[in-house]
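Recap quiz, item 2
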Amino acid sequence: MRVWWSLWGFLGVGVAVVCEAALGSYPRLRSASRPDPASASFSRSYRTCYFDQKIDHFGFAEDGKFKQRFLIADQHWRPGDGAILFYTGNEGDITWFANNTGLMWNVAEELGALLIFAEHRYYGESLPFGNKSFDDARYLNYLTSEQALADFAVLVRHLKKTVPGAQDTPAIAIGGSYGGMLAAWFRMKYPHVVVGALAASAPIWQFADLVPCSTFYNIVTQDFRKSGNCCADSIRNSWAAIDRLASTAEGTRWMSCTFRLCSPLKTAQDVANFKGWLSETWVNLAMVDYPYQANFLQPLPAWPIQVVCKFLQRPKLPDKALLKNVFQAVNVYYNYSGNTSCFSLSQTATQSLGMQGWYYQACTEMVMPMCADGVNDMFEPQQWDFQSYSDDCYKAWGVRPRPSWIPTSYGGRNISSHSNILFSNGGLDPWSGGGVTRNITNSLVAVVIPEGAHHLDLRSNSPYDPNSVLQARLLEVHFMKLWMKKDEEYRRRK
Amino acid sequence: MRVWWSLWGFLGVGVAVVCEAALGSYPRLRSASRPDPASASFSRSYRTCYFDQKIDHFGFAEDGKFKQRFLIADQHWRPGDGAILFYTGNEGDITWFANNTGLMWNVAEELGALLIFAEHRYYGESLPFGNKSFDDARYLNYLTSEQALADFAVLVRHLKKTVPGAQDTPAIAIGGSYGGMLAAWFRMKYPHVVVGALAASAPIWQFADLVPCSTFYNIVTQDFRKSGNCCADSIRNSWAAIDRLASTAEGTRWMSCTFRLCSPLKTAQDVANFKGWLSETWVNLAMVDYPYQANFLQPLPAWPIQVVCKFLQRPKLPDKALLKNVFQAVNVYYNYSGNTSCFSLSQTATQSLGMQGWYYQACTEMVMPMCADGVNDMFEPQQWDFQSYSDDCYKAWGVRPRPSWIPTSYGGRNISSHSNILFSNGGLDPWSGGGVTRNITNSLVAVVIPEGAHHLDLRSNSPYDPNSVLQARLLEVHFMKLWMKKDEEYRRRK
């Protein structure tokens, strides 16, 4: 059950951009029209820049710098009137997030916005120690959410100082998933830098004992229950079927062959990995259960769980028949294009998934307890075992996680004294279980999109969007305008 | 002009306390009645404890711990009704602050308060690497305000979890000077840990270009102008007199002798240090210009600047006559007890001044620009020269200061989205120039005590207190009660 590290790796395929680094100075934009992978009719252009960041904001012995990449688009910017929309990059290549955050492009004109997409340190091209960045715990020592937020704060302040006309422009943080947590935390810790934050599908409470550890898998299971008769039951029954087949060499060979595995199963650990790979597949499907054909983690049809569940209507079939159906289901996720010759257990999302950074973060700050009981959910029973989790982390990185640090640093459930954060959640998204789904105050507002999966609201408008996501986006724009207006009033009063 | 590091060192004489360390568990209090050095009629007792803190809250490669000292007093605590008053320790021995923060002892009964005085890392006994803590920049790397605030947050949460009945007790941060900045920043960064903060004489704006660099010395000069005829003029004229005398060997010898210097002046650098020592003396007098006899930096009479100024009424005397008077003035500050045989230039405040830590902090985060022009103030003209400041720091510690980090981290003048902070300032205190002296919102409130020097309001009640400080203390208690009440209402609504 490796959910804690690989679900979050949304690294995208590289998109060629014009790289015009002019460090320390404001880069003028040159349009480089590129097709939007999601909607070919929508043209976007940005400039790629690099900013000299301190490797360590919180200590002075390490005084080195690294080049943080960020993307900038000012086609619709109205200085003196508009806003800076600042994407708080998460665990991946920033171009991928720029391409999957259509909302920012869609609202740019209405808000007169300067768009900035800032890459998170240790991801994409923003590697503090180049190729050595992941070599050991010493190099990895500066990979924390606090350092990333400090990067963002320094960068926003630099842009406001150096971009002509930007000095009094209010900045708004926007992010999804871990990036959504960063957006919320950015507003909490640096309210003088951003006037508000849109935190989409941000499970800021998926830590310590803030929500039950069972929540996440329960939501995945509900998605499958709702999407087809006996679908969840079929998956629940598959685990024992796998175990029975794995008890003989013939059965193991049969599974390797039937599931077209690139490397055949051999050891008990291989079989465990195989089950982990299946679990992740179901989880990923729940995250990307979008109402239209899309390519986020994988190219997929509209409402992919419904498509998958068509193969999973008969939970009581004999083992091999049941698993043949499971293969058909999995084949939808991994082979929608029809070009995949074999399946690799180490790959559950896009080819260029950058797993190392998130694995390290999960082993330090980002400890999200999860468990399954196989009764209320369709997964193999698994308790949350912090000690073994910590031991695995120590083996992998030589560090031990600190599960109480995130609630200590960012407040856990007690966040009511903050302001101007909009938390959006998809009802289908397993991460909504750890999200803020109810209003806390009149400026800490939650919106739930019942038909939405993982930050559907951040994606480009689509004719297939359910009404709930359109409403959510209207609300999001409403609040952004409200924060801008309040900021203007405040500046006028001063 | 070494103001940036030595003005803040309020290390006190050690007071014998019963040390009953019970790590990780709640220590039961044993009364150890001790006389209050300021007011013998008031008896105080506390227990000394030590808490295991992470050396590095913001990285995982260094996983070591150190013992943070804190003092606890629960004589007046009413669990379920009262508050935790938490002193955010600054650059010195925490027992000294406990003894010089009479306010907390005075209000404990009224607020049903559990008193905690937490020592700042790298001061007093709370040394992360023991005797090696100051050896080099690697050991010093964890001496930052952010690490200190994280210590406080972890400690408060630990106490609330482990002290029976404290779970729902609201904590209020209280501090003076750098400790006042920490109290304010604690509320800003960890509003889920403390419901409010009293930031006394906290110059949170004495950074970067937030206030003119001349402010500080202007206020010192005003204090001397107000306290005696021609007093400031006499001091202003003394610099040139020193220079003229220093131009001959005889004159230099005469000054060493007249000022009873332990080490006679020899080089030009010695003469510069001599002038720096005099400047610091005038500055320190402005900080401790209290209305009654007190022993804070030094044992002193009531309104010590008035006493000093009696010797400084004739600014146009010949050089030696003028400097003889300056000596008489200085003698008030360094020799009020009459027992000092010679004066050391390296010592401007209490014997046990812990200068190293603050010197390092001034060379990293705590860069407070100061300048003098000798016209509007009584000091030798000196520009703010960041480059030479930085070079000196590099020579001393191998690190360079980052003057824009504090405003980036803590918001500079843009702090209006925070709440529940009361900023108190003394009108006589040179640090009030960098303080918040006007209300920002109805929950970011400023109070000025015109007749107050450096955090007079934090001291014990005295019959000689001016009315303004009594009013300020009433306001402080009013706001603490308000924060407690609001917190109770919030908890009841939940």
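The longest helix of chain A spans residues 467-493.
Residues 1-19, 21-42 of chain A have pLDDT under 50 and may be disordered.
End of item.
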